[in-house]
Amino acid sequence: MPELPEVETMRRGLLCLVGRRIAAVNRPPCRCRPIALTPRLAQFRRRAVGQRIEAVERRGKRVLLVLTAGERIVFEPRMTGLVLVGRPPDRDYLRFELTVSGRGPKRLLFWDRRGLGSVKLLRPDEVETQLGSNQLGPDALEVTATTLRKRLSPSRRAIKIALLDQRSLAGVGNLYASEILHVAGVHPERPCARLATDEWRRIHATMRRVLKRAIAMEGSTLSDGTYRTALNNPGSYQNFHRVYDRRGDKCPTCCIGTIERIVQGQRSTFFCPVCQPANGRARSR
DNA sequence: CCCCAGTCCTGCGGGC
DNA sequence: TGCCCGCAGGACTGGG
Prior knowledge:
By secondary structure, this protein is α+β, with helices and mostly antiparallel strands. It contains seven helices and eleven strands.
């Protein structure tokens, strides 16, 4: 479930690789089905080995290694994927390995228990067609309040659903969507088209605040313990969750409401009916 | 445009 | 106690 804060934490953990050269590309033997690489391993090697890692970028929930030729190696963790320079949790689900030259960590690992994630080597034009503005909305930490409102407000969808749509806005996932709307005092089922300008302002400001705090805490490691930083440490933002996975708890903000769980688009949403009333007259905090 | 169900995958929790 | 079902969900696809 890495979302923007977790993926940004991974990105920062990979900055130690900048300036170093890719010496080898491997799919280490593991207990699981080998990861499907794009392109296939032989061509991946041909194009990647010898290239210098010029920068490490993030686009929404993906981490990108920028290579000399302008190509990018794109890691998409999806549910359980990890990009590591430290020890992997185990060798069973180790799917991909980049060996690098020079000082510092010797290799970058892609570990993925459920195997829904992917690793791709893309040419610059492929990066644009696959990760450009036609496919991916503006990054949640870069979008302005005005742009956010203009992009989402024409829609009649529920605000929670819209926040999860990566073509509208990149980076927010299921966990942070609930957390953001709670602090913003906006009911998750309210249609975008019915939100007032002031609510959009609160959603925007809250989104930035929540995501930045989560980054400062190195993301959220839930009870399954899957998410890890690049150095294989847990994050600590889970200790600050106000609603996510807290159904039945007293709301920590108002101390009156009880956290509810509903399903939207086949995903769990958590909210406080007192802080986030359905009629939209919530005051934030 | 938007919604829904199905798909991928594995671990785990609830229920019997 | 042990086993099985179904849930968890990010992104994508196909049908309505």
